[in-house]
Amino acid sequence: MPLAIIILSSGCSRPTTLQEVRSEGVLHIITRTAPSIYFEGRNGITGYDYELARRFADHLGVKLRVRVAENNTEILSVLDRNYAHIGLAGLSNREDLANQFHAVPTGILAESVVIYHGDVERPITPDDLTDTTLHMVADSNHEPVLLQHQELHRDLNWQVHSALDAAGILARVQSGEFPVAVVSSNELDLNQVYYPKVKQAFSLGEPEQLSWLFPAEQDNSLSNAAREFLDELSASGTLAQLSERFYGHLDRLNYVGARTFVHHANNRLPKYEALFRNYATEYGLDWRLLAAIGYQESHWRPNAVSPTGVRGLMMLTRSTAGQIGISNRLDAEESIQGGAKYFTLVHRQIPERIPEPDRTWFALASYNVGYGHLEDARRLTESGGKNPDRWMDVKEFLPLLAQKEWYSKTRYGYARGHEPVIYVQNIRRYYDVLAWMLEPEKERQSPKEPWFVELEGAEDPTPTNEPDPDEGMRAMLPHELGMIPPTL
Whole-angstrom Cα distance, residue 316 to residue 334? Predict the structure, then answer.
């Protein structure tokens, strides 16, 4: 059913769109399913644009009502008929849309990029595309850019697919059905790890900000309110925090690392999956998060040993194993149980006021570098005028713990502070891939977000009152830091 906009009729002049929204008490948006915009995650609906729209509705004091379209063509049609207040389409402020819609930038930069199958010779310039057909989604940012290139490269041709989204285009490049295609850089960033045979060739233009679209029939009251609201979020750092939440960990899994991880997920993980599931349930964790930690620690090798003696599938230190009652760190079951128990302990040390998913990111950092060093970094963050309860801020200060001018001011001293930053980002990416691989095809809408699951009756290990600065410290193996495949 169309989203009819309620128009208040009276003898007075027509109210503004903003007044209409507040009078009805509902903000109508239309969007499409995409990890960059809107998707239903494990813990409910999320997505960068959706989170902004939800906050905007709260700011206006109204409810948010969402209609999910099949594609951008439907979104633009609904907006053109003024059947929704805002369209979340992942489009930039294109010249061909300027007369139809008001546009408000959302803070995400994207560009049209050419992608190709890894077995095909890499195209370098548009001249290399004249003997092939480019593929793309309908009503995207790409066709206007290609029309400009076509003025110089008349043999350039392309095919628009109204029934496909960006993930569908990527899947067909992955399979070799489409040798070359064009997608938005932000959607490639979010999805490429799931399609390791897809490679980026070159950009077709300069990055542009993606925007919310408002029907031209509206006055500017609602779009101006949205612009002011997003400016406030930008000034407060909230916009950057949301960007980090959805995009901040995407550069950690390169082509080689992705293929290695998928290979190990198919060949090593099945041996230990039941253990990860059982002990994650016992301690109230998402088992895929626990498995991602295990992969980061040892690549799921129960006999792994670091040069400093940290060992086992979960790479527990001797003191940690003793603290949580693990006698044999090289036993896979004991190690996984110990990792689950210890991570639960660490997670519960993180202040409850810190919301998810940041609380989990802090717990992972603490698991790696130690709670004492994490607290040092949080104090440095606060003294630097940033938010010590926000992961995107603290991860900027953690590397300073390796510099004498900074660690000399801290309680627990030197730490290799760059390692927990890489550690957290790697695990976030491993989790994304596991969530994608292990779900039915029909549910593969997007990467999922790891949340710490509180289960009634889960064992509650009691943390020590005094943080151990060395707890969780480990000599990171080269393949862990650089995503280089380990020696098999």
Answer: 10
Per CATH, domain 255-482 is 1.20.1260.10: no
Handedness of CA 70, 73, 78, 79 (dihedral sign): positive
Q: Which of 8-12, 54-58, 98-102 has the highest mean pLDDT?
A: 54-58
Q: What letter would DSSP give residue 320?
A: H
- Amino acid identity of residue 401, one-letter, is L
- CATH of segment(s) 112-205: 3.40.190.10
The answer on pLDDT for 175 being more than 60 is yes
pLDDT digits (tens, 9 = 90+) for 342-375: 999 999 999 999 999 999 999 999 998 889 999 9
Task: Detail the DSSP E strand segments found in 37-111.
Answer: 39-41, 44-46, 63-69, 86-92, 101-110
| pLDDT of 409 strictly over 70 | yes
Nearest C-alpha neighbor of 367 from the set 447, 254, 452, 432: 452
| Whole-angstrom distance, CA of residue 429 vs CA of residue 332 | 23
The residues annotated as belonging to the active site are 297
Query: Do the beta carbons of residue 316 and residue 329 sit within 8 Å?
Result: yes
Q: Where is average pLDDT lowest: 141-155, 184-198, 250-264?
A: 250-264
- H-helix segments, 151-286: 166-175, 185-191, 221-236, 238-247, 255-267, 269-283
| End-to-end C-alpha distance for the chain, whole angstroms | 57
| 3-state DSSP assignment of residue 214 | strand
- Rounded Cα distance, 358 and 77, in Å: 38
pLDDT in tens, 45-71: 888 999 999 999 999 999 999 999 988
Second CATH level (architecture) for the domain 17-107+210-247? 3-Layer(aba) Sandwich (3.40)
pLDDT at res. 259: 76
The residues with which 34 forms a beta bridge, in sequence order, are: 38
The pLDDT value given to residue 216? 92
Question: Cα-flanking dihedrals φ and ψ of residue 159, to 5°?
Answer: -125, 130
CA 365 to chain centroid, in Å, comes to 18
Respond yes or no on whether the N-terminal peptide bond of residue 355 is cis (omega within 30° of 0). no
Res. 154 pLDDT band, cuts 50 70 90: confident
- What does residue 313 show for φ and ψ, rounded to 5 degrees? -60, -40
Take residue 209 and report the two structure tokens written for it: 């900000």
The position carrying tokens 């151990």 is 468
pTM confidence score = 0.60
**One fold for both 112-205 and 255-482?**
no
SS3 at position 396: helix
Cβ burial, residue 57 (10 Å; 0-12/13-18/19+): buried
